[in-house]
Amino acid sequence: MNAVFIPARARSKGLPHKNRRIVGGNTLISRCVETCRKVTPEIYVCTDDPWIENDLANSGVNLVPRPKLSCEDDAIVTQVIRWMYYYIDREWEKIAFVQCTAPLMTSSDLQAGFDALTDDIDLVVSVVPYHGIIFNEESELINFNWRQSVNRQERELQYESAGAMFVFRPEHLDMALHDGKIGLVLADHPYKCDIDSEEDLCYADMVIRGECPRPTKPVCASDTVC
Fold first, then answer.
1. In this predicted model, what pLDDT tens digit does every residue of 27-46 receive, in sequence order?
2. 170-211, pLDDT tens digit by residue?
């Protein structure tokens, strides 16, 4: 059996109480739960927000109290994962850590993440294509050479995290999550949508309601990306 861990703290610096916000007619947290429920019934939400606890009271998900230390702005992901895993004290084959602030994640994204975690992969991350050109503070190019062609189609394939989920095995908990071999899965929606502003909410809502054309998932030309 596979499980889904969803963190949903009350605080948010960029967009207050964003996990409660409505997108496509549903709250971010409820939408995330319903998406994950299509893949596995083992869903655990870790929160310190009484509003979220009440919102999910009759949803059938398992609520996990979130300790104050892991609710601070400087709390790291591994703290929350370890807390949830040892608090619940159950065994699963695979665990997906899913962010409810990525409302364009689909159930097929989640299933693809579970499927991609094969014996030779330690961690699977949901990604989207990245075509940007990055400079550092010294105005130096990080990921591009001006001497090369500037055509996007001819550049080396690059990806960024979709901000939606990553999948791992429980035995990977006591190591740094990125120490092992990483597998990538292309998200169905080819643009990153990680809610942190009113503009992000507006875009996600338009896509979900069909008021904004949903781009076609790109065909991946790399053998290292599922």
1. 999 999 999 999 999 999 99
2. 887 766 566 778 999 999 988 888 998 999 999 999 999 888
Structure token digits, residue 68: 């104050």
Full residue range of the structural domain in which residue 134 is found:
2-209
Q: What is the CATH number of the domain that holds 191?
A: 3.90.550.10
Asked whether residue 223 is domain-assigned, the answer is: no
DSSP conformation class of 44: E
220 is a domain residue: no
Cα separations in angstroms, 179 against 81, 83, 146, 168, 173: 16, 20, 33, 12, 11
**Structure-token match 């596979």, residue found:** 2
> Between 107-116 and 28-37, two packed helices, what is the crossing angle to 10 degrees?
50
Residue 219 resides in a domain: no
Give CB contacts under 8 A, 24+ apart, made by 218-224: 218/129, 218/186, 218/190, 220/157, 220/186, 221/157, 222/157, 224/183, 224/184
* One-letter identity of residue 112: A
Separation CA 78–CA 168 (nearest Å)? 12
- Whole-model pTM: value is 0.87
